[in-house]
Design goal:
The complex is a heterodimer of chains A (364) and B (335).
Chain A (H helix, E strand, L loop, with lengths): L19 E2 L1 E2 L3 H17 L5 H14 L1 E3 L2 E5 L3 H24 L2 H27 L1 E3 L2 E5 L3 H17 L5 H14 L1 E3 L2 E5 L3 H39 L7 H36 L1 E3 L2 E5 L3 H17 L5 H14 L1 E4 L18 H8 L7
Antiparallel strand pairs in A: 1-11, 2-3, 3-4, 4-5, 5-6, 6-7, 7-8, 8-9, 9-10, 10-11
Chain B lengths: L1 E6 L7 E8 L2 E6 L2 E6 L4 E2 L8 E4 L5 E4 L2 H10 L6 H7 L1 H33 L2 H17 L3 E2 L4 H12 L13 E5 L7 E3 L5 E4 H7 L2 H16 L2 H20 L4 H4 L4 H25 L5 H13 L15 H14 L3
Parallel strand pairs in B: 9-11
Antiparallel strand pairs in B: 1-2, 1-7, 2-3, 3-4, 5-6, 6-7, 8-9, 10-11
Classes of the chains: A alpha+beta (364), B alpha+beta (335).
C-alpha cells in the first residue's frame, strides 16, 4: 500500500474509501485439531487448562477474521483468565448453595451478587476490548461504573416492575452504553439506533411467539382430544398413553423449533439493527445478516452436533462465526491507515470470566 | 526473502517489508523500516489454522506473515521450535490419537473417577451441610408430597423399636431418625436423606406387612446412609452438569441444558447394589436372612406390576437381578 504523505492536508484527498466486507478464513477442519487437543488438556488438568484453551480459541477466531486483508488479534493472558475463572467458580458455588438453602442467606447472597455483577460486566467489556487489536492498535471500553449500574441494574429493575414493557428500551440503552463507550485507538464508536426501532423488533418477536403458540397449541390439543374421545366411546376403557406421549413430544418439539426458528430470525434482525446503526468516527458499518441463513445454520448445527455426539462442534462454531463476520461491511469515510493508537491501560480479567460463568456474557 | 507487513503499534499504517535471516539476526527492511535484531529476541506466535502468523519484537511492533510454509522454512533455519501443544494441534495422527484419548479419558472418568471422587467428597463434607440440606429438603417435601402418617401408633412404635435395636455391621445401632409419612404421589416408598434420616411411607408398610421384611428394606436404606449415597449423587450430577456445560456450552445452551438425569440412571444402579450388599450383611449380623429383602422386593414388584408407574422400584432398576444377587448372598452366608 502507498505511504500516505504526512505533509498533505486534508488527508481525505488520498483516502481509500471502498467498502470493506469482513472476511472469515477459518475452517472446521483446521479448528478441529485445536479444539480436541485443548479439550483433552482441559479434561486431563481438571479444567485448569481451560483458560489457555479459551485464549487459543479466541485467537483462532480473531486472527481468521480479516478486515482489509489484516486479521484481528486477541492478547488476553491465560493466567489472568484462570484467576477470573476461579473467582467465578467460587461465586457460582456460593450462589448454588444459597439457592438450595432457602434461608435469609439466599437473599443476602443474591443481593450481593446483583450489586457486584454490573461492575463485573463492565470489567468484562473492558478486558475483552482492551485485549482486541487490529493492525497493532487496540480497542478500548471507557464506560463508567455508574453507567453499568444504570443499564444492568436500574433498567432491569424498571423492566421488571413495568411488566417487561420497558425491555426493548432497556436493551437499546444497554447497546448504547456498550457501543458509545467503545474506542478503536483514539477513535470513538457511536450508536444511533432509536428505542422505537427496538420496540418494532420486539413486537415482531411477540407476534412470532403468538403465531407459533397458537399453531402448536392447537396441534397438541387435537392429538390429546382424539384419544380421550375414543376412550369415552369405548365406555371407560383404559386410555392409550401413546397419543398423550405424542402430544408431549409435539410440545417439546415446538419449544426446540421455537428456539431454532424464531430465536435466530430475531437475533439476525437485531444484529442488523445494532451494527448498521453503529459508526466508528466518520466511518459507517453495515450489517446484512440473512435471517433465513441464520435459521438454517442454527438448525443444521443443532442436528449435526446431536447426531455426532458433539464432534461437529468445531465446524458448527466456524459456520456460525463465518455467517456473523461476513454479514458486516465496513464503509470507510477516509483512509483506514490513519487510526492512531491510545496509551495502554491495565485491565483485569476477573470481570470477563465471572460474566462468562454466570452466562450473562453480552453477545455482540 | 519473505514478504511481510510491519506495524509500528502507533497507527494502523501497513509497511510492506521483506524479512531475511543474516547470521541468526532477523532483518526487516523496506517501506521506511530498517530493523535488525537477534532472532532469539523475537517472539513467534503459534500457527493457528490458515491465519497469518506474527513475529513480535520487544518494542511492541510486529510483522505479520501470510506465507506460512515459507515462514516455517525461515523459523527452521533460525533454530526456532514450535511449542508442543502447537505441534500437537496440527499433526493429523496426533489429533486422531488425542480424539481417542479424549473419549477414553472421559469414559474412564465417568465410569470410575467420578464415583470415587464423589464418594470421597461426600464423606468429607462437613455434617452441617448435610444437616441443612436434610432440613430444607424435608421442609419442602412436607409442604408438598408428604402428609402425616396414618399408621396406628403402636405399629409405628414397634417398627421404631425394631429399627433401633438393629445391630449395624460396623458395630452400634442406628442413630439417625426414622420418620413416618404418607404420600399419594410417591406410593409404597422409603428414602434416605443426606444426613441419614430415613423416611418410611405408609403404603410400603401396608403392602409389605411383615415386620422382618420391612426391617430388610430399612437395612437397605441404612446402606444408602452408610455410603452417603444421596450426597454422592448430588456431587456427581453437579460434576456431570459442569462437564456438559464445558463441552457443548460454546455452541448451544439448549444442548448444554440436556437433562443430566439421563446420566444418573447407571450410577443409581451401582449405588442400589452397594446398599443391597450392606443391607444383606446387616441382616446376617442380626441373625436374619438376606432373602427377606428379596421377598420384600417381590411384594413391591407385585403391587406395582409396571415399575414405570412409580413407587419404591421406579428408582431401583432391574429388580429381578437384585433378587438373584440377594439369594446368592443368602446362600453364601448360609441363611
Amino acid at each position: 500500500m502507498e505511504d500516505a504523505p504526512a505533509n498533505i492536508t486534508p488527508p481525505a484527498a488520498t483516502a481509500i474509501a471502498t467498502p470493506q466486507q469482513l472476511r472469515f478464513t477459518g475452517t472446521g477442519g483446521s479448528y478441529f485439531g485445536i479444539w480436541i487437543v485443548n479439550l483433552l488438556l482441559t479434561v486431563v488438568t481438571l479444567g485448569i487448562y481451560s483458560a489457555w484453551a479459551k485464549v487459543r480459541r479466541l485467537q483462532y477466531f480473531y486472527r481468521h477474521t480479516e478486515l482489509a486483508q489484516t486479521g484481528f488479534d486477541f492478547h488476553g493472558s491465560p493466567k489472568r483468565i484462570l484467576l477470573g475463572r476461579i473467582i467465578a467458580f467460587i461465586m457460582l458455588v456460593v450462589y448454588n448453595m444459597s439457592v438450595r438453602l432457602h434461608s435469609i442467606w439466599t437473599l443476602v447472597v443474591i443481593v450481593a451478587l446483583a450489586a457486584v455483577l454490573p461492575w463485573l460486566l463492565r470489567n468484562s467489556l473492558r478486558f475483552r476490548l482492551y485485549n482486541t487489536s487490529w493492525r497493532g492498535t487496540r480497542f478500548h471500553f471507557r464506560g463508567t461504573v455508574g453507567g453499568a449500574y444504570r443499564v444492568f441494574l436500574l433498567n432491569s429493575f424498571l423492566s421488571l416492575i413495568t411488566l417487561y414493557i420497558m425491555v426493548p428500551f432497556a436493551h437499546q440503552r444497554l447497546k448504547a452504553y456498550q457501543h458509545d463507550n467503545s474506542w478503536f485507538g483514539q477513535t470513538r464508536f457511536s450508536f444511533h439506533a432509536r428505542a422505537g426501532q427496538f420496540y418494532l423488533l420486539y413486537l415482531m418477536l411477540l407476534a412470532g411467539f403468538l403465531a407459533f403458540g397458537i399453531l402448536f397449541g392447537m396441534a397438541g390439543l387435537f392429538s390429546l382430544l382424539k384419544p380421550l374421545m375414543l376412550a369415552q366411546q369405548h365406555q371407560g376403557g383404559p386410555v392409550d398413553p401413546k397419543p398423550i406421549l405424542m402430544a408431549v413430544g409435539i410440545i417439546y418439539g415446538a419449544v426446540i423449533l421455537m428456539s431454532v426458528v424464531i430465536g435466530p430470525v430475531f437475533h439476525a434482525l437485531m444484529t442488523n439493527l445494532v451494527w448498521s446503526n453503529t459508526r466508528l468516527g466518520e466511518h459507517r458499518i453495515e450489517c446484512h445478516m440473512s435471517p433465513l441463513k441464520l435459521t438454517w445454520v442454527t438448525a443444521s448445527n443443532f442436528v449435526m452436533v446431536v447426531v455426532t455426539c458433539g464432534l461437529f462442534i468445531p465446524w458448527a462454531m466456524v459456520r456460525m462465526t463465518r455467517l456473523h463476520v461476513e454479514s458486516i461491511t465496513f464503509i470507510p469515510a477516509s483512509d483506514l491507515q490513519e487510526f492512531s493508537a491510545a496509551a495502554p491501560e491495565d485491565v483485569g480479567a476477573v470481570g470477563a470470566e465471572t460474566a462468562n460463568v454466570f452466562d450473562f456474557d453480552i453477545a455482540l | 526473502m519473505l514478504q511481510a507487513s510491519y506495524f509500528d503499534g502507533q497507527s494502523t499504517r501497513v509497511h510492506e517489508v521483506v524479512l531475511s535471516l543474516v547470521d541468526n539476526d532477523l532483518v526487516i527492511s523496506g517501506d521506511n523500516v530498517n530493523v535488525r535484531l537477534p532472532f532469539d529476541q523475537v517472539q513467534v506466535d503459534e500457527r493457528l489454522g490458515q491465519a497469518s502468523r506474527r513475529l513480535r519484537l520487544p518494542d511492541g511492533t510486529f510483522c505479520e506473515v501470510r506465507d506460512l510454509d515459507q515462514l516455517d522454512n525461515l523459523l527452521q533455519s533460525a533454530g526456532h521450535r514450535d511449542g508442543w501443544v502447537d505441534r500437537l494441534q496440527r499433526h493429523l495422527q496426533l489429533v486422531l490419537v488425542s480424539s481417542v484419548a479424549f473419549v477414553l479419558i472421559v469414559a474412564a472418568a465417568y465410569q470410575w473417577g467420578l464415583p470415587a471422587a464423589a464418594k470421597i467428597g461426600a464423606r468429607h463434607l462437613p455434617p452441617a451441610v448435610s444437616e441443612t440440606l436434610t432440613t430444607q429438603t424435608l421442609k419442602i417435601l412436607d409442604g408438598s408430597f408428604l402428609k402425616e402418617s396414618q399408621l396406628p401408633n403402636e405399629r409405628r412404635t414397634r417398627l421404631s423399636a425394631e429399627f433401633r435395636s438393629l445391630r449395624l455391621p460396623e458395630g452400634g445401632t442406628p442413630t439417625a431418625p426414622l420418620l413416618f409419612r404418607r404420600s399419594k404421589q410417591l406410593g409404597a416408598n422409603a428414602f434416605t436423606l443426606p444426613d441419614g434420616t430415613i423416611v418410611l411411607l405408609d403404603d410400603l408398610v401396608t403392602s409389605i406387612g411383615d415386620t422382618e421384611q420391612i426391617m430388610a428394606v430399612l437395612s437397605h436404606e441404612l446402606g444408602h446412609a452408610h455410603g452417603h449415597h444421596s450426597l454422592q449423587l448430588l456431587l456427581q450430577s453437579s460434576a456431570v452438569g459442569a462437564f456438559l456445560t464445558l463441552y457443548v456450552g460454546d455452541i448451544s445452551t439448549l444442548i448444554a441444558a440436556a437433562p443430566a438425569a439421563l446420566v444418573q440412571a447407571k450410577y443409581s444402579q451401582q449405588l442400589e447394589q452397594e446398599a443391597d450388599d450392606y443391607g444383606a450383611s446387616l441382616l446376617v449380623k442380626n441373625g436374619l436372612s438376606p432373602v427377606l429383602l428379596a421377598d420384600a422386593l417381590r411384594k413391591l414388584l407385585a403391587s406395582h406390576p409396571k415399575s414405570s408407574e412409580g413407587g419404591y422400584l421406579a428408582s431401583h432398576p432391574s429388580t429381578e437381578a437384585r433378587m438373584r444377587h440377594l439369594r446368592a448372598l443368602a446362600a453364601a452366608a448360609g441363611r
